[in-house]
Amino acid sequence: MNYKQIARRIPDNVRSQIILSEENPITKAVPVQVNYHMNLLFEVWFTFIEPNTTKKYNCPICLQNILDNFRQMQGALVELEKENQLLNSI
Fold this sequence. Notes:
Layout lengths: L2 H5 L4 H8 L5 H4 L7 H14 L10 H30 L1
Helix pairs in contact: 2-5, 4-5
């Protein structure tokens, strides 16, 4: 599964209002439990990408993997957002 297919699992409103918001959690996240932006990405990941997986808040490697995946997926998220805005403008 490529990053665009994974990104499609995230609903449009979550993508635009949370992930690609001015707050920019992908850029500001730090892979530690107490980081607000990391918690947002963590919850989105386990709500939409891997909903049937056990959440491991205290796993630094898991947090880093989620952050790395979001960083690699960022281009696909932006592309989907542009497509969605274009469709909505028609």
